[in-house]
Amino acid sequence: MVSSLRKMAEECIPIDKLTLESKNCEITARVSREWDVYSFKDTKDLMSTDMVLIDKEGSYIHASIKGNFAHLFQNRIAEGSVYYIKIFSVVPNKAQYRVVGDNKLMIQFCPSTVVRSLSEDSLGIPTSAIPKHRFDLLDFDKVASRMWELYILTDVVGVVCCEGEVTNKNSRGNIVPSLMLELHDLRDVKVRLTLWGGSVDNYMKQKSLVQDGIIIGVFTSTLVKKYMNNAVLSSTTATKIYLDLDIDEVVALKNKSSSSPRGHIIQPLIIEKQELDTHAVLSNLKTIGELLEITKTDFKDGTLIFCVATIYDIHNNNGWYYNSCGCKGMIKAYGQSFWCKKCNKTVNDVIPSFSRNS
């Protein structure tokens, strides 16, 4: 059995050699990250189980298992383990919220996908030869450049210098815990990150195990948002947290923080209250008619405009939101994906849009 597995592993192709035309391919890879994606409408409705796979060359790819048959793999795949995988589809990567941003392809498992665990004997090389992690770490001074880039999620590494309090907030109709952190990098550039839901509990558990008091974390697959005119990060369902990870970037931050007299002390996070500039409000005050005219032009994303109006009705006949691709047009089911008539294209990722009358 071991010899047959080793032979199959030797016949596998590197991940970076996969193409849309690849058929009957076999790969050997480590499941570096694994997470579940649930429906916006029902947090118990599993949409998919997703993974990041890494091979011995260090190439990596996003893999996904549809929710209606994800249970077939529930006890067969474990994060961190190495597998021989065959019978899968190679498809275009997602148009939005990519976890592997520089890869134009991803893998879709099917019910008949073969997944076999590999040991060092069957692999023929030490399992340590396959990297445990790979991140696309973004410098903090470049975070703002991703504010309107929805095609990719963002990985960062930083020292936790300030920490807020865990509070319960409403997120898509559900009350979930949230925690805001402030991180700084090697150049002392700072950025704020809000953790949501399970990410809060994950962070707190890992933090309690850190011995030296310096909290340095890698936070993956975060979304760049705008808060009080600043670029901030927000965790997603794909976010993974790694505190005190043994990688060069963490070691460099730890060495710098250790030399600082206050390097190990986390300060309380002070959240400033936003004050409106009366002159800015009055100078940008528009009527609804003027807003409608502006939407017909090629206006810049993030344009700040104020309007005084009364909300007299909220469309909720078909739920609180409708599915869109980000253009605010409604999309409809189209095979295994969706179709946006307004953009005239196939859509793989659904974005909830809320409908209001003012």
From TrEMBL:
Tree of life domain: Eukaryota
Database matches in InterPro entries: NA-bd_OB-fold, RFA1B/D_OB_1st
A Pfam match: DUF223
CDD domains reported in the protein's UniProt record: RPA1_DBD_A_like, RPA1_DBD_B_like
Gene3D superfamilies from the UniProt entry: Nucleic acid-binding proteins
Replication protein A 70 kDa DNA-binding subunit B/D first OB fold domain sequence ranges: 24-116
Protein's recorded name: Replication protein A 70 kDa DNA-binding subunit B/D first OB fold domain-containing protein
Source organism (scientific name): Cuscuta campestris
Lineage: Eukaryota, Viridiplantae, Streptophyta, Embryophyta, Tracheophyta
